[in-house]
Design goal:
The chain has about 425 residues and is an alpha+beta fold. The chain is about 40% helix and about 15% strand. It is globular.
Length: about 425
């Protein structure tokens, strides 16, 4: 919207008009600059929050109004410059709205209003550029999904477990090359040396307990940490530790047990006290230990008949544990990425190791660091992770060169568009023409 230049009253002599307007312009400009300085100098904890864009927009409302007043009150030469500033602000807002509209136009058609849905967030340099929910959080009750709905994040949980281990490494309480028997002396290793790093990088050779033929039949039975470890500890190693990569939830389950042994805290309490509370992640928790009151989504799966959805299978969250038992929101995950990017929890060197592809004993690298998949997306470095658990699927990616983060949570384990596909689509649109082909 272009501001109209105000005409001077003929009752006021031109010279008097100019002098008065010049003084008025000076006063208004001073107020404008003071308000803008106050806006830019917001406390760092606000700048890091994913809702910063909303706060920033509200703070800009006053400077924008003053800009319009300048256009109305100042002489023509000053009004032109003020009009340019106002246009720049409006143009910036329009570009952000256009970007959000482009992302929404690609995602919205993928979901139906009366079926399970998803929440999506896209942030750049810590500021939210897109945040929206689709579909139903509870189909039976007719409760629509909202952007702050809590859902299971499944294996994205591994990022938090890996970070917990690295925090203890930074504190000198353990080392990556420590043999796991140092902390779990009763764990049989078949005469092989299995290290903490092997567990972090899925190179331990320990078989994945979720692949066991008996797993699904008993997955709704509560087990203690020791009982769960007993259920897979005597299985033969798949290969010599450090020689191959094979994704293993068992390895991350053991990492949770090690965190408990070293820290003296239950895993649920450790991630709460050491990660979630310090980062302001109110709606994140080990399922069953929630602190927030945000709405929880029901989990679904495509019905056996192939049409419609039915409730997802029941699973005890004592089984996924440190490998996938956390719940969160896209807002909290965006807060998590801000902390990761800022090096809030870890030493820079430790965080960099987490984002570095692990190298096997033969010198070949694998596409995984510590809790993050390490790949490239159209030539651009990307750290990401997906997750699937009864009733839910998830995917989050970060493109550090563009300071871009995308998180997608859905409340169906099958029958909906893939969370990874949605995240990649949103990232591609957000980066735009600057994205390498």
């Amino acid at each position: 919207m272009r501001a109209k230049k105000r005409r001077f009253s003929p009752a006021c002599p031109p010279k008097t008009q100019f002098v008065a307007s010049r003084w008025f312009f000076a006063v208004i400009l001073f107020i404008f600059l003071a308000e803008l300085a106050r806006t830019v100098a917001l406390p760092s904890h606000f700048q890091r929050d994913v809702h910063m864009l909303k706060l920033y927009s509200r703070r800009l409302a006053s400077p924008l109004l003053l800009t319009l007043l300048l256009v109305l009150q100042a002489p023509a030469s000053h009004a032109d410059s003020a009009s340019t500033a106002a246009s720049a602000i409006v143009t910036g807002a329009s570009e952000e709205e256009a970007l959000a509209a482009r992302i929404d136009s690609e995602i919205a058609p993928l979901f139906k209003a009366n079926e399970p849905g998803a929440t999506v967030i896209v942030t750049q340099a810590g500021l939210t550029v897109f945040r929206k929910a689709y579909g139903m959080a509870d189909v039976a009750k007719g409760l629509p999904m909202t952007p702050d709905t809590v859902m299971r994040i499944a294996s994205i949980s591994k990022q938090f477990t890996a970070t917990g281990i690295l925090m203890l490494v930074d504190e000198g309480k353990l080392a990556l090359d420590d043999d796991i028997q140092k902390f779990l002396p009763d764990y049989p290793s078949g005469g092989k040396r299995i290290t903490i790093e092997h567990l972090l990088t899925h190179t331990s050779g320990i078989a994945n307990f979720t692949n066991k033929p008996t797993f699904e039949a008993g997955m709704n039975t509560d087990l203690t940490v020791s009982q769960m470890i007993d259920s897979f500890k005597n299985d033969a190693l798949q290969f010599e530790p450090g020689t191959r990569y094979s994704y293993s939830n068992s390895g991350y389950f053991l990492l949770g047990a090690i965190i408990e042994k070293v820290s003296g805290l239950a895993y649920a309490k450790f991630v709460e006290q050491r990660i979630f509370v310090p980062l302001g992640m109110l709606d994140s928790a080990y399922e069953g230990h929630e602190r927030g009151s945000a709405m929880r989504a029901k989990g679904y799966t495509r019905s056996s008949a192939g049409s419609g959805f039915e409730p997802g299978k029941a699973v005890s969250m004592t089984l996924p544990y440190a490998a996938g038992a956390l719940v969160s929101t896209v807002d909290d995950l965006a807060r998590w990425d801000v902390a990761v990017s800022a090096g809030t929890l870890l030493k820079r060197s430790s965080q960099q190791k987490a984002f570095t592809a692990h190298v096997l004993a033969d010198g070949k690298s694998v596409p995984y660091g510590y809790g993050w998949s390490v790949r490239k997306m159209r030539g651009m470095p990307m750290q990401s992770h997906g997750g699937g658990i009864p009733g839910f699927s998830s995917y989050a990616l970060r493109l550090p060169e563009k300071q871009l983060y995308v998180a997608v949570l859905t409340n169906a384990d099958r029958g909906l568009p893939g969370a990874e596909m949605i995240a990649v689509k949103a990232a591609t649109i957000a980066v735009g023409n600057a994205f390498p082909e």
